[in-house]
Sequence to fold (120 residues):
Amino acid sequence: MKDIKLGTVESRFADIIWMHEPVSTSDLVKLCESELEWKRTTTYTVLKRLSERGIFKNDGGVVTSLISREDFYSMQSERFVEETFQGSLPAFLAAFTSRKSLSETEIAEIRNLINSYEEE
Fold:
C-alpha cells in the first residue's frame, strides 16, 4: 500500500469520519464546524485532499473510508519502527520501556501476542 501520511489536523478530521461513517457530507460539515471550528469550504477541501490520497471516498454525498482506522494506524506504526529503529521491534520496545514501566496487564498482553505468533 502506498505511503500515506496525515498531519495532526488531518488525523483529527479522519478520526471524525471513521467514528461516524458512513456520514453524509452535510453531517460531516456540521461535525467539523462543531469539533474543529471549520467552515464548509475547509471541510470539503480536506475531504477532497484525503480522497485523492485514497483514504476516503465521497460517493453521492456519502463519505466512507477506503482504509480502516486500524489499518491506517498500523501502517503508521510500522513506518515509525522502520524509520526510527531500522525495523527492529525489540529495539523499539527497549526504548519504549526505558522511560515507562509496563504494567502486569501490559506484560501479559505482550506475552499472549508473542505466544499467538509462535503458535501460527
Q: What stands out?
A: The helical segments are 8-20, 25-36, 40-52, 69-85, 89-97, 104-119. The chain has a mean pLDDT of 92.
